[in-house]
Automatic annotation (TrEMBL):
<keyword id="KW-0963">Cytoplasm</keyword>
<dbReference type="InterPro" id="IPR001174">
    <property type="entry name" value="HddA/FKP"/>
</dbReference>
<comment type="pathway">
    <text>Isoprenoid biosynthesis; isopentenyl diphosphate biosynthesis via mevalonate pathway; isopentenyl diphosphate from (R)-mevalonate: step 1/3.</text>
</comment>
<keyword id="KW-0067">ATP-binding</keyword>
<feature type="active site" description="Proton acceptor">
    <location>
        <position position="123"/>
    </location>
</feature>
<dbReference type="GO" id="GO:0019287">
    <property type="term" value="P:isopentenyl diphosphate biosynthetic process, mevalonate pathway"/>
</dbReference>
<feature type="domain" description="GHMP kinase N-terminal">
    <location>
        <begin position="59"/>
        <end position="131"/>
    </location>
</feature>
<keyword id="KW-0444">Lipid biosynthesis</keyword>
<keyword id="KW-0418">Kinase</keyword>
<dbReference type="InterPro" id="IPR006204">
    <property type="entry name" value="GHMP_kinase_N_dom"/>
</dbReference>
<dbReference type="GO" id="GO:0005524">
    <property type="term" value="F:ATP binding"/>
</dbReference>
<comment type="similarity">
    <text>Belongs to the GHMP kinase family. Mevalonate kinase subfamily.</text>
</comment>
<dbReference type="InterPro" id="IPR014721">
    <property type="entry name" value="Ribsml_uS5_D2-typ_fold_subgr"/>
</dbReference>
<dbReference type="InterPro" id="IPR013750">
    <property type="entry name" value="GHMP_kinase_C_dom"/>
</dbReference>
<keyword id="KW-0460">Magnesium</keyword>
<keyword id="KW-0808">Transferase</keyword>
<keyword id="KW-0414">Isoprene biosynthesis</keyword>
Amino acid sequence: MAVWSAPGKVFLFGEHAVVYGKPGIAMAIKPRVYVTVRKTRHPPRVKSPYLEKCFELMGVNGSVYIHSQLPSSSGLGSSAAVTVATLSAINDEYGLGHTKSDIASMAHSVEKSVQKGRASATDTYVSTFGGVLLIQGDIKRRLPPEDFHLVIGNTMVSHSTARMVEQVSKFRATDPDIVNPILDAIEAVTMRSLHVFQDQRALGRYMDINHELLEALGVGHPALTRLVTAARAAGAYGAKITGAGGGGSMVALCPKRSKSKIAGAIEGCDGRAIITTIDNEGARKE
Ligand code: MEV
């Protein structure tokens, strides 16, 4: 039996734009998914398409049990965490000898095939390695780990990443002269943020701008607007959609002393708050 876990993630900058080769900055967060894989001669049929693909790719059969601290379909990378932890556990249980880099790229191919479309490598890469990463296509750079205090607000409005990515792609096909400059502006905000990474007030301002640009891309939702506004009013340095939008979650960068107040403001607007910080480990054996 092998038990592995992998963390969820938030996008601090650049979601959607990364799908078009722009840079994005994502950070692994504390809540994790735990996966147990066991060799069995007659494994029960695996129901999730992600798990099915993981076993198919590894060329083995087995039973799998999942325990998750991450809400699914909430923009926090739970499907990537499940995929990374499952591949790692299969690799361990069957002694297949894959490296962490192999796991990250296999997890990306699982996500692409299940989501049947464009999926950046961000979620799977961050979940595998942990930390804060700047990702642009094949370039992945680890940024110095920052002790950011984050409050995540889950709207509890479930969304489909594949559908939101598709929606942006259609918008871009019909109105490239509107959408391309928005993607360029998201890229500019992401790159500028690298210059102020130690100045959380300035970073928060860039997160606010990134949020407005995501709204302009059409991936906002009234429930997200409510939580973002509440977090800012309660003292966040900045707040934005995180992940695909259209529901799902927002993230607020907070002064340490205000995180409980900000979490309370989110709960007061019918959101589920998660107070969290960086995870520096990525996938690990339990
Ligand atoms: C989803 O967490 C983020 C998107 O940019 C899609 C992707 O990166 O695959 C919307």
